[in-house]
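Researcher: I'd like a structural prediction for the single chain below. Treat it as a standalone chain; there are no partners to consider.
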Amino acid sequence: HDGCHIFRRSTRRCDRNLSATRPLSSWARTSRAAANANSSRMHGEAPMRLTKGLVGDFGRQRIRDTPIAESGFVGAGVGAAATGLRPVVDLMYVGFLGVCGDQILNNAAKIHYMFGGKVKVPLTIMTGIGAGTNSAAQHSETVYSVFTHYPGLKVVAPSNPYNAKGLYAASIRDDDPVIICNNRQLMGIRFDVDVPEESYTVPLGQADVAREGTDVTLLGISYMTQICLQAAEDLAAQGYSAEVIDLLSLSPMDDEAILESVRKTRRIVIVDEDYPRCSMAGDIAALVAEEAFDYLDAPPKRVTPPHTSVPYSMPLEALFVPTKEQVVAAALETLE
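Model: Treating it as a single chain, here is the predicted structure.
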C-alpha cells in the first residue's frame, strides 16, 4: 500500500524556511502518511519544528515521537519501507550517521539489489547539515558526500522553500531511499519566493540555473547557492556576468547542466561546505576537467572549508564557512 510514516528528531523552525510541514502535510492528505520524531518531549514537532502542526492534523498513529536512538528509529524506517509503507525519518544532524550508518548504508541502500529488485525501500530521511550555528564539531558537519558514494541512495539538498517543498514531495514519491539534507543556516532566512499551496514536485537528478550569466559559472549546493547568488551580485557590480547553478540533486547528479554552463562561460567556481577531501567539489572539478577541458579558459576553482573539524569558537567558525568574498576572489582569479 501507499502509506507514508514519519519518524523524527528535534530541530528549530523559522519563518518561511525549509520546514517540512507543507510538503509532508500535502502528501499525507493523499496517502496514509505518518511521521516519527525521536524525542520524548517534542510532542510530534521534531527538534527544529520541521513537522509542526502535523500531529493535530493527522494524529499520533501517523506522527510519532521515538526515543533518541538513531539506529533503532532509522532501522524501523527501513523495515517499514521494505514492507510497504513510505516512512519519513528525521535524523536531526548528519553527524549522527555514525550511529545509524549500518541501517542506511548496508540495509536501505542495498536491500533492493540483494533481493533482485523484488523489494523496494521508499524511505525518506531528512537530516540537518551545515556550520555557522555555534553547535560545535559533532553537530555542524556537511558530509552529504558520504551518502553519494553508495549506489542505491539518492541525495538532495534544497536551497530555498520552493525547491524544498518540491524535493520533499518528489523524494517521498520515489521508490528508492532518499536523503534530504537541510542546511540549518537556511532555516533562519526569510525568503522572497512563491511557494504554491498545491502539491508539486522538483525532479530528482535535475539542477537549476538560479541566475543566468556568461563570464563564469558559480556552482553552489544548498546554503552555498545563496552565497553564490550574493557573490554574483558583487561580480555584476564589477562588470562580470556570473551564472549560478543550484545543484539540488547530489545523487543522481545533473552532469549535463554543469557541463552546458561551463561550455558557455568557460570557467567554474565550485562552492561546497563539505570537507574538501573526497567531496562533491572534487568530484565536480574532475567531471569538468575530464568532459569539458577543451572549453576551459582557466582551471576549475574550489571554495571549501579547511580540512579540519568545525570549531566551536564563533570567530573561528566564521573563518570555516565559505563566504561570498572568497567566492568573488576565486571567480576573479579565473577571469584574470
